[in-house]
Amino acid sequence: AAFPEVRSVVLGSDSDRLMVETIPGQVAKDYQAQAHRIAAGMGVPRVRIRQRGGSLPGYLIVELLRVDPLAQPVMLPAGARLAEHPVLMLGCETGEDLRVSLLDSMHIICQGQTRSGKTRWVYGLLAQLCGCVDVRICGSDITGLVARAFAGTRHEDGWATGSNYIEAHAEALEAVVAEMDRRNALMPPRVDVYPVSEAEPLLFVVVEELAGLVEAAAAADAVRTRPSRGMPATPKLADRIKGALKRLMAEGAKVGIRVLLLVQRAEAGIIGGFARAQASLRLSFRVDDAESVRMLHPLVDPVLALEHATAESAIALVSGPGLSLTRGRAPHMPDYATYVDLVQQR
Questions:
Q1: Are 108 and 316 in contact (CB under 8 A)?
Q2: How far is 83 from 199, CA to CA, in rounded Å?
Q3: Are 262 and 208 in contact, with CB atoms under 8 Å apart?
Q4: Most CB atoms closer than 10 Å: which of 113, 190, 206, 226?
Q5: Alpha carbon distance 341, 132 (integer Å)
Q6: pTM
Q7: What's the average model confidence in pLDDT over 322-328?
């Protein structure tokens, strides 16, 4: 039977490098998807796999790393200036950076339990985007911490914060829906993507702690006064919030709207299959169990899913179109004060 063969070995101080001849028809992604198993079989923390360049097709370079490539911090880059400029999402264990342009992406879902590094990742992402002249950051922040950094900037309007008045969160999301409808109605002839500009910026809608928001809305609905007999029922706040998000994720991308949903756990009752299908980029920081990983990454290897349940802070699994499931490290954001300073400066 055919099997891959090691053709050369180069020993090094930090890693050993193998040149492997693959079975015809195999590509690097086939091996990258099983990198953690190869590492376990070779007795090293991690491996790094890439297609060999040059004139010899069918060969891979497999680096056996004695130290986890994500052990070192990933530096936060300077801010972007336009929506089309890629921003750094993660430094991946492959040695490459995952950079994404908002214009080329769809929506994003990010999950992670408390102290997993998810919030610091959000701070780093927004610090890169806030200086884009053709991007406006808005949304719902029940904690108030993410939005508070934008006080006094052009991103200040369009946020609903805190839990004292939950209806404001529904109103903020519905305002973005109204803007989406306006843009759809004004779509130029012979164009199916709304042109983003400084006057008509891309709207980056951040929903922080979606599960907490929906729970707070349900609690508010439970104590609302019932309408008198014969009077129409007032729509529930939880339904308004979910309905607005569903429309934004279904129809918003073509008119310059991107949604970032942040949850501790991407439960089906909070983020259904429809919302997951609309999110092209999915990140999982440490979660409570392997099943939580599978909610966002259904094809994850069970061993990797179980391992990730105990991952250190700032380490994430990421998957997306053309992107095999891989591990990455969030850009370093030292503290909340640094986030606020960067937003205000940029």
A1: no
A2: 13
A3: yes
A4: 206
A5: 16
A6: 0.87
A7: 86
